[in-house]
Amino acid sequence: MTWSTRVGIVALTAVLLAACATPGDPGGEPDATPGVSPAASPSQTPAAPAGEFSAPAADGVMIGQGTVLQVGGAAPQFCLGGIAESYPPQCTGPEIADWDWAQAQQSETASDVTWGAYAATGTWNGTVFTRTGVPIPLALYDTVPLEDPLAGRQGSTGRQDLDRILQEIGVGEQLVASGVRSGFVTVTVVYDDGSIQAHMDAEYGPDVVVVLSALRSA
Questions:
Q1: Residue 91, in any domain of the structure
Q2: What are phi and psi of 100, to 5 degrees?
Q3: What CA–CA distance (Å, rounded) separates 15 from 18?
Q4: In the predicted model, what is the mean pLDDT of residues 106-127?
Q5: Residue 202's domain spans which residues?
Q6: Is residue 50 part of a domain?
Q7: What is the DSSP string of 106-139?
Q8: What is the pLDDT of residues 127-181, one digit of tens each?
Q9: HEC states along 130-163?
Q10: What is the Cα–Cα distance from 75 to 108, expressed in whole angstroms?
Q11: Residue 69's closest CA among 12, 118, 102, 130?
Q12: Which pLDDT tens digit goes with each residue over 67-98?
């Protein structure tokens, strides 16, 4: 149920209760100011996420570009989005299995943290990225320009609605990045086989949310 629907229900309930009250009841509460009750205000009632769902797995070998970071003896993570520019850096991402720092050139270690930026190939089961090839440092990797799905497009949804949708969207640990661009809400997830895009279209209508995948076919 969206926030606006909840507001409508609260307001309707208040009207019905007022109509059923005994006139002149000295023990009753003073008449409330018509409108939305404070308990239903946006600042006090956060919007529910627009659906949490299982992350889809990918068929075949995928490639991703990002920072691999390992803290101590914990499993390394494949950070496909932004990183905090501290030293050592900080970031989060899915676990990357079968990672071997001996095969990863140009890594750094400080304060029990080892990291490096790589293009890595592997498989994705919806939770864990399993490395299958030798990682290539991004400094040595020839990136192939990707087609911009928003090139030449302009969405028609108002900015206020876009900001609301941006706050509502819930894709759990799949989320890599999100924002508003060219009249669309853009959501980058670890991987989408089309099911996340279909979910967003059903929830908000077509041409409102554009879902992008960080992992792509190798």
A1: yes
A2: -130, 110
A3: 5
A4: 98
A5: 159-217
A6: no
A7: T-EEETTEEEEEEEEEEEE-SSEEEE-S--EEGG
A8: 999 999 999 999 999 987 888 999 999 999 999 999 999 999 877 888 999 999 9
A9: EECCCCEEHHHCCCCCCCCCCCCCCCCCCHHHHH
A10: 16
A11: 118
A12: 999 999 999 999 999 999 999 999 999 999 99
Write the single-letter amino acid at 155: G
- Would 47 be classed as within a structural domain? no
In sequence order, which residues have a C-beta less than 8 Å from that of residue 70 and are 6 or more positions away? Answer: 76, 77, 99, 101, 113, 114, 115
DSSP readout, the chain?
A: --HHHHHHHHHHHHHHHHHHSPTT-TTSPPPPPSS--GGGSTTTSPPPPS---PPPP-SS-EEEEEEEEEETTSPPEEE-S--B-SSS-B----EEES--GGG-TT-EEETTEEEEEEEEEEEE-SSEEEE-S--EEGGG--PPPPP-TTTT----S-HHHHHHHHHH---GGGEEEEEEETTEEEEEES--SSHHHHHHHHHH-TTTEEEEESSEE-
| Within-domain flag for 46 | no
Report whether 155 contacts 164 (CB < 8 A): no
Q: Which residues pair with 63 in a beta bridge?
A: 121, 216
pLDDT mean over 96-112: 97
Give me the number of domains the chain comprises. 3
